[in-house]
Design a protein that fits this description.
The chain is α/β, with parallel strands linked by helices and 286 residues long. The protein contains 11 helices and 10 strands.
Length: 286
């Protein structure tokens, strides 16, 4: 086992991770060091991957590395830009009932995310929103992360980052029971695809580099998502049941599988994961 730096030991202990986590992501850290080697301009690194693949942990790990080197860095998630429950109810009433559930393109405040990235690129102070999944609403604004000094690096993570819109032909056939029963006319998935093709692609274009945590199979998502909810319930007393998780993940199965198909050709660095999030293979992308 490799000898860990003090910042790595502190990170693993604060995140309650075994020390071999650092060894598992050695290649990712090596790539990251190269990506941020020239910090004359602010750099935004995006981390994409299916739900529960370890995006938040890797983002925090990169931030810990940068801070240990004396750089200023923060992380924000696409999840932090979710619309409030009431805003999604309005979408559900005007577009499709499934938009009440957070997750898919169309349920985020993409304009706010673009504003954050523009402020970051222009070395301005910024405020990073935070979302509370236990209440299904944004946290009170006084609990958002205020960044007064210019940042060197912003890590932006999210489950569909970098995913291109699907060809119309692919939208015709349902991919699961949710689509067969609740989207039999393909109106929901077509509208999601429309959102993805518009503002989301504009947001993605602002990323300097993209890492893809390739979970390889949608079958892993339920297991990983269940683990996330168990931690949330232990922390807050609130979270989704297994039955709710199974229903929840069906709405984004289509784009998760499309991302697995497409992102290896789009990303700058890919990490293939096994069912336990151990890295099977790594390779540079485009």
């Amino acid at each position: 086992m490799q000898q860990l730096a003090p910042w790595q030991i502190q990170f693993c202990e604060s995140w309650q991770l075994p020390h071999d986590y650092a060894e598992n992501v050695t290649d990712a850290l090596s790539w990251f060091k190269s990506a941020v080697s020239d910090l004359q301009q602010p750099i935004c690194i995006a981390i994409s991957g299916c739900q529960g693949s370890g995006k938040s942990t890797l983002s925090a790990y990169f931030v810990a590395y940068l801070r240990a080197q004396g750089f200023s860095a923060e992380t924000v998630s696409l999840d932090d830009f979710y619309l409030s429950k009431n805003q999604r109810l309005e979408l559900a009433g005007s577009l499709h009932p499934a938009f009440e559930t957070r997750g898919v393109p169309g349920t985020h405040n993409v304009k706010a995310a673009q504003t954050v990235l523009e402020s970051f690129k222009n070395r301005k102070s910024l405020v990073l929103p935070r979302f509370d999944k236990s209440t299904d609403n944004p946290l009170s604004e006084d609990l958002w992360t205020k960044v007064n000094a210019p940042l060197d690096v912003l890590i932006f993570e999210g489950w569909c980052l970098g995913v291109p819109p699907e060809p119309e032909e692919r939208l015709k056939l349902p991919c699961n029971q949710f689509e067969m029963l609740q989207d039999h006319d393909a109106s929901f998935r077509s509208t999601v695809n429309m959102f993805l093709a518009a503002d989301y692609q504009s947001l993605f274009s602002k990323f300097d580099k993209l890492i893809f945590l390739n979970g390889k199979s949608f079958k892993h998502v339920f297991k990983w998502r269940a683990e996330q909810e168990q931690k949330l319930i232990a922390k807050t007393g609130r979270g989704l049941s297994e039955q709710q998780i199974e229903a929840f993940i069906q709405s984004y199965q289509r784009l998760t599988e499309w991302g697995i198909n497409q992102l290896p050709q789009v990303c700058d660095f890919e990490l293939e994961l096994d069912a336990h999030r151990k890295i099977l293979n790594k390779q540079r992308g485009k």
